[in-house]
Amino acid sequence: MSSQIDHLLDESRRFAPSAEFAAEAIATKELYHRAQADRVGFWADEARELLTWSKPFTEALDWSNPPFATWFADGELNVAYNCLDRHVEAGNGDRVALLWEGEPGDSRRITYAELTEEVKRVANVLTDLGVGAGDRVAIYLPMIPEAVTAMLAVVRVGAIHSVVFGGFSADSLRARIDDAGAKLVITADGGYRKGKVSALKPAVDMALGDRNGSGVQETVEHVLVVKRGGNDVEWTEGRDLWWHDVVPQASAEHEASGFPAENPLFILYTSGTTGKPKGILHTSGGYLTQTAFTHKNVFDLHPETDVYWCTADIGWITGHSYVVYGPLANGATQVLYEGTPDTPHPGRWWEVVEKYGVTILYTAPTAIRSFMKIGRSVPKKFDLSSLRLLGSVGEPINPEAWIWYRKVIGDDRTPVVDTWWQTETGAIMISALPGITETKPGSAQVALPGIAVDVVDDAGVHVGNGNGGLLVITEPWPSMLRGIWGDPDRYVETYWEKFADKGGYYFAGDGARLDDDGDVWLMGRVDDVMNVSGHRLSTAEIESALVAHEATAEAAVVGASDETTGQAVVAFVIIKESYLSQHTPEGLATHLRVWVGEQIGPIARPRDVYIVGELPKTRSGKIMRRLLRDVAEGREVGDTTTLADTMVMSVISAQVK
Ligand code: PRX
I need a labelling partner for 605 at 20 to 30 A (CA). Which of 14, 285, 359, 613 fits? Predict the structure, then answer.
């Protein structure tokens, strides 16, 4: 870590926006001035300007009961109306909303008028199925236009969606359905991934299958199924409905009613430091204000001419905020791509950029690093001259990847914005503004207008320029999470208790440094959350999957640094004697990797599973993961003096070799 920090602090390259870019830029310095003069008033002005309210609000922020905030609480709006109907009413119905590209090469162009009509039909279907305000709907779909339609239809009727990433297992899906008490599941037979159909419906059937003896009351009444993969599926009469049987028949008339600004919009599960994922709750008015504001200003959106593409899956927060809500609230035209970057060939993404003339690209460092590995000859085969702005999100971007992104993809012309935020923050919090900021490779740099962050020590004291510490958010913001679904205590404990005496510092869980200019450099998580290819995973969750296997006696998981994925999951497992005598360590390791993939989803599959005889523990029995990380990263093992048995690390190191 410290050599990485030294390297970062040596980074002195700077990139000012070009005069042409700055001249046309949407964001100006005036935003910072206005926000500085009156932070809450600034957000109120933005909320009024960016959104259409069916009932105007009179109060912006209520922070009288921290950490429970409300924003624009006496106002009313319909989020789907803001993303759809109002663009049609303004005469932009013919503008393309979605340029959808399927992995096998099929494509669809959907205008705002068409998307609005489809969402109205689905909203009527939902009403017929008894789904209304406050009900929860689980969405488990591939990256197809129906995913966007489904989300907007749910919120149009005032219900709450819980999108579950299509790569999660049946068990993960079941846990999320149960925690939210979903009434309806919207899924597909399957979708395309890496050149073949990957089935989804069977996982839903498994998740809803045999609950006898589980003690869980089934809440799901119906399953609405989109046909995409064409794979065979089982059918439960009375419960399952084909989308194509019910949606085209439904009426295309649907009046969008206004709902209070604090009406829950969605729940999205994310990994924390315990084994159980947290259902992060977002509400309507503040969330839509900040996603629209950031999408417009950070990505310099000119909706009449830009073609925007965010490569995130809708199963993650980036897909929610920067595929669905921000871009559609702003009336953007965007690409939606179903598949993986390298199918059917390694230049697939660049082919999509060329085909649609993408102007703004938003992706993750892990993807950039994997393209670097393949080499510049692949992107150079395509015409990428339409690109004018590049964005990065999900994990720290190392300066070399940043420079490669700018030079090879952006022709050394395009600004690169590194955007820091989280599922919990709902929208971008720290980022350069592309027409204003002189960018620094590897630094997210400055809090956005209206956002207040700091880097503090363990006591909550500002560390000062040139120093490192913990990243905190010091004032409430419109798109902040409103809680953890069903667990207000955990919300307070996880995010607000660490600096409770500061009267409302949000603890983000990230380490950061301030450089001599006061710019922020993110240094990665400081807790037991790993970041693998920009996806959040918890060590505890993977450990509990490992110990759920009958062969496992004990397990410890660490995130080890990895050149491509940022971090990789490495597991150390003690196997029960009875299994050890009957199986080879290699066989057991392979089996456990697959097992974790089945339990949680392929993204959680450990890169390495080491079968060991013991784990390093302190005298009080706490596993010292720091030492295991040293082994996993091939370093000399650090200080072992607090171990109960100081010999244990040399035994483990020998076993791993
Ligand atoms: O550690 C930070 C890292 O991703 C975490 C949030 O993960 P998640 O909720 O899944 O949201 C990812 C997409 C917003 C953060 O706590 N992270 C995100 N963006 C950056 C980042 N780390 C460094 N630089 C970033 N730009």
Answer: 613
Report the DSSP beta bridge partners of residue 580. none
**Separation between Cα atoms, residue 257 and residue 159, nearest integer Å:** 12
Indicate if ligand 1 lies below 6 Å from the C-beta of 396: yes
Structure tokens at 107: 């494509």
In a domain, 332, yes or no: yes
Answer whether 313 contacts ligand 1 (Cβ < 6 A): no
Mean residue pLDDT across the chain = 95
Q: How far is the CA of 534 from the centre of ligand 1 (A)?
A: 7
Query: Is residue 175 located within the same domain as residue 73?
Result: yes
Distance from Cα 420 to the centre of ligand 1, integer Å: 6
Query: Is the Cβ atom of 454 under 6 angstroms away from ligand 1?
Result: no
Q: Which ligand 1 atom is the nearest neighbour of the CA of 444?
A: 26
pTM above 0.90, yes or no: yes
Same-domain status, 636 and 511? no
Give the per-residue pLDDT at 368.
Answer: 95
Instruction: Calculate the alpha carbon distances from 607 to 556, 610, 634 in Å.
Output: 14, 10, 14
Alpha carbon nearest to ligand 1 atom 8, residue: 422
Shared domain check, 193 and 263: yes
Instruction: Give yes or no for residue 443 CB within 6 A of ligand 1.
Output: no
Tens-place pLDDT, residues 584-594:
999 999 999 99
Model ipTM value: 0.99
467 shares its domain with 589:
no
Which pair of tokens denotes residue 93? Answer: 């119905």
Phi, psi of 246 (to 5 degrees): -105, -35
Model pLDDT, residue 9 = 66
| Inside any domain, residue 133 | yes
318 lines ligand 1 (CB under 6 A): yes
